[in-house]
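Protein details
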Amino acid sequence: MTCETFCGGIFETNCYLVKAPEGWILFDAPDGACDWLISRNVNPKLLLLTHGHFDHIPDVAKIKHRFGCQIGCHPLTAPMISDPEFFRGFEFQLEIEPVEPDFFVEETLARRFLGLELQVLEVPGHCPGSLCFFSRQNQLLIGGDVLFAGSVGRGDLPGGDIDLLLEGIRKKLFPLGDDVTVLAGHGPPTKIGTERRTNPFVR
């Protein structure tokens, strides 16, 4: 499976561009992602969001307007991208261009996105409605801000719950298998086996 990475914004947020049988899928949209797609001469047909935190969504509306692609996210992510006042309610002085999702994505054992079959896992605790996308065929997990190399997502942001996050990692991600590569929302790729054995937060 062809997969490319772009890291953008002041929080160095990763997004991932995957070639599906019926077109390109972009996972998350940090600052600069739209210009990166233009520079790559890629027209994504679909934008899937792992979660709605402000560092993962700055270019959502821009990408939607430029490429006309559909946007899929968890129902709890929808107000984070459609309501410009959402983050101000938590005293974050942030400006986002609002956009409505085209469809919702929730946990399921198998769903096809542009012909690519993915398992969708809901792993809240870092952010309500946080999703991980797993390609069993490619042993690849696009994990958002759930599990990092040597760390885990923060649990102290609005809607966070660190105990819930750690439980989700142990019960939903670890059983996927030690050889699964995790593409995280920040930092380098890692393996589930590596994190199961050495990650100080979930050992």
